[in-house]
Amino acid sequence: MPSQTRLSWKKAILLNTTFWVAIWGIALWNNFQWAAAIDREITLDTIFSWSFPYYLTMVIIGPVVYQLQIQWNECSYAKQVKLHLIPSVLSGFAHQLSMNAFAILFNPNQAQLEKNPFFEELVQRYSSGMVFSSNGLLFYWLIVGLFYSLTLYQKYRREEINNLHLKSDLTTAKLQSLQMQLQPHFLFNSFNTISMMARKNKTDEVIDMVGSLGDLLRESLALKDTQMVPLSKELELIRKYLHIQQVRFHDRLTIQVDIPEDAMIIEVPSLLFQPIVENAFQHGIEKTSGNVSFEISGEFENETLKFTFFNNGVQLPNDFDIESNAGFGLSTTLSRLDHTYGKNYTFDLRNAANQTGVITEITLPILH
After folding, report:
1. How far apart are CA 253 and CA 247, in angstroms?
2. Neighbours of 105 (CB within 10 A)
3. Rounded Cα–Cα distance for residues 74 and 254 (Å)
4. DSSP state, residue 262
5. How many angstroms separate the CA atoms of 67 and 95, rounded?
6. Dist. CA 144–CA 67, nearest whole Å
7. What are φ and ψ of residue 195, in 5° steps?
């Protein structure tokens, strides 16, 4: 039996002993019930001369069976059966020997025992045909089946745990891959914004934006191997990005962030909000003249945390479908949410009422 799946000796002995003591207890209870029904008394001599050796002999035989199973586990099933044949027959003889010995030692007829010494009485019993116990043979195979079943179960559990670890490692690798794809996409959009300001000769704004982008890059690179971050950290990065946009739009842009303070310690996927915010500016706010606004709000709903992103920019086309129309950023976000939360999240992107702006709602389970 491979060492990584077999029971320890201590557990094997404890399990075998517990099993046969339990069987003995059930048998005793049934015997007492039967004796009470026919108004017959069961003495301790009766218990130790028959019931005790009948079951508890297997407490001694069990560890021997386990040792044999360890040695033969690498053999084929057919060969294991053949190898166990001789020991199982010997178990039948040993079982009968134990029963004979206890029956003589605890025989209530002491006069008979004084007349025939122990070994003479034992020989007499063998001469009368008390040589082999078929139940001893059956009990042996019961022990083999018990240990083998537990070995298979342990092997199954270990394989199941290994598969879960592999699945977890695969999910982590996929998330890291998606995050690596997301960061270049975000950088491209940020540099594009800076280049637009440079072409308009807005030097002070460009310097401010480059400094803010540097801070943002430093924070983002620090999270390159981190899949989950506290909400406070995620919002810190978003605020740096929004500062870049504030410099760009000046007084035209109004930004509002309203999230409960006690939600800040809750962990969310890193850079989760970035593509949503980028999407709002790229497809909504940037295409709108006049004053624009962007809002982020959060609220608890039972065991979930709901985030709402609103911009009053250009609305989505009437035939918009997120599965077919989502760009790289949103599709990557959805993929990361799938890998992190399975089906335990919601994502909704829709036009706001009264033909003003777009709303994105994300509901995430609170991971403890």
Report:
1. 9
2. 14
3. 73
4. G
5. 19
6. 11
7. -65, -35
What is the three-class DSSP state of 48?
Answer: helix
- Cα distance between residue 94 and residue 137, in whole Å: 9
Of 60, 18, 25, the C-alpha closest to 150 is: 18
The residue written with tokens 């390159």 in the block is: 224
- Backbone dihedral angles phi then psi of residue 6, each to the nearest 5 degrees: -90, 155
Domain(s) of CATH 3.30.565.10: residues in the chain: 202-365
Helix axes 9-37, 134-199, angle to 10 degrees: 130
Q: Name the amino acid, one letter, at 92.
A: G
CATH topology of domain 202-365: Heat Shock Protein 90 (3.30.565)
Distance (Å, rounded) from C-alpha 3 to C-alpha 10?
A: 14
Structure tokens given for 160: 């199941």
- State how far the Cα of 18 lies from the Cα of 14, in Å rounded to an integer: 6
Measured CA to CA, the distance from residue 344 to residue 302 in angstroms comes to 13
Burial of 265 from C-beta contacts in 10 A (0-12 / 13-18 / 19+): exposed
* Res 177: pLDDT: 47
Regarding pTM above 0.70, the answer is: no
Q: Classify residue 278 by burial, with Cβ atoms within 10 Å: 0-12, 13-18, 19+.
A: buried
The one-letter amino acid code at 22 reads A
Per-residue tokens: 286: 């940037």
Contact 186, 213 (CB under 8 A): no
Give the pLDDT confidence of 309-365 residue by residue, as tens digits: 999 988 888 877 776 666 666 777 888 888 888 888 999 999 988 778 999 999 999
CB 215 within 8 A of CB 160: no
Measured CA to CA, the distance from residue 212 to residue 214 in angstroms comes to 5
What is the spatial distance between Cα 274 and Cα 349, in angstroms, rounded to a whole number?
A: 15
Chain segment 9-35, per-residue pLDDT in tens:
787 888 888 888 888 878 777 777 777
Pairing assessment for the beta strands 292-301 and 253-258 based on DSSP bridges: parallel
Two tokens at 52?
């005790």
> If 0-12 CB within 10 Å is exposed, 13-18 middle and 19+ buried, where does residue 110 land?
exposed
Which residues sit opposite 307 in a β-bridge? 298, 362
Integer Cα distance of 256 and 294 in angstroms: 6
> What would the two tokens of residue 180 be?
């690596």
